[in-house]
Amino acid sequence: MTSPIARNILWVVWGVLLAAFAVFIALAFGVPRGARAYVRDATRALEANVFVPEGDVELCTPACQRRGAGETVRAEEGAEIQPLGAGASKAMVRFFDGSQVTLEGHGRLRLDTMRRPRFPIGESPNVVTLVLERDERTPADALAVLRVGTRYDDGSQGPREFWIETADARILVAPDTHARLEMADGELRVYHEAGAGTLTVRGNGIMLGSEDGRDGRFIVLGVGERTVIGRDGIPAPAQADPEGLIAAAGFQEEAGRRGWEHIPAPVAFQSPPESAWVYGEDGAALLSLRREDSRKSPADLVLRHDLGNVSLADATYLALTATLRVNAQSLPGGGDRAEEYPLLLTLVAVDDDGDEFAWRMGFYTLAPDPEAEEFSGARVDPVRSRYVETGVWTEFDSGNLLEGSNALAFAHLPTPRRAVALKRVEIKASGHDFHSEIAAIQVWWK
User: Which of 15, 106, 197, 381 would bridge with 135, disulfide CB 3.0–4.6 Å?
Assistant: First the structure.
């Protein structure tokens, strides 16, 4: 008869044997499976090339350094890039798969994820995830612009994902796709410009019954289409690119200079202002508006381009864009009536009653000073004017003037209007001494 002590020892022995067998089974089957999972899923972080074609850029990795024009540096995962110099700088980033982006304006870009499989037989996709933010210290209309170009996919690199994340949307850029993002305060505009791929935009707003069965909504933009995402985080329906109403946006071609008519001043000015087609440093044609030796007397210079009588009854989009700079002005801001800007762009439209009305946007480089000994009464329109740096080329885009969410829309004029037709566009310079230039101007309509 076996004693209790012997039986207990026997149970212990069997327990040890069974535990050892279980460990053996786990090692025999678990380790290879775990190894396979590791080989399949393991990724490695990569670096990107950052080139500064113009201006200065701040690169934080995490220590921040200023990089100047012509410099190329390597940036690791998590690095942040921000152009400096009030929008006069840009940074180009090239990734391991040949894709690249260009950051311009008042934005900050984080290289959040740059990974590819660690082993040739890995099944994880090549992933690039970028996070785009706008510099909140800048004016509400200041843009952060990101241009994206992904490389053609020949299948040799395996699955690929290229993501751009913002506070309002998450965007998946397929291979062979060229896109542009413009971020202002409270609005994100996404354009699918070219390529054979797709651009999927997923907003952060909540919409029940969404197409993908989850919170939010996504849309796929075709080539030439765009969407706008406002504060609600829901992308607007895709729209095709609008049509330009002026024969040529720029003045480099003869067609761009035709159609502009100088409007004679009602009175003769001392030292009258002059307009002329000139050529810039790069040889491009410019419209120059200049006045000197004014002796502090006001004068206006106006050119207009008739657009016929474009019906806006069924229009969904109307915008004015321009490339411009103000080189000098002597009268601050827009003068004491906020109408004497060194450069003023105007659209003349017709409302429901058949009456003409004007939409204006002024640009100035010399800000008013209420405490100045001279011109202390000068002021600007806080909504319909823009401060620009002296001698710096500026890209202006009014946004959709028919869209109520746009602060510049016709609906937000001091006397709100509904435009039913568009008649002409005007370029004006006003004040005392001034010198302004325009390289391109276009009116977009759809």
Answer: 106
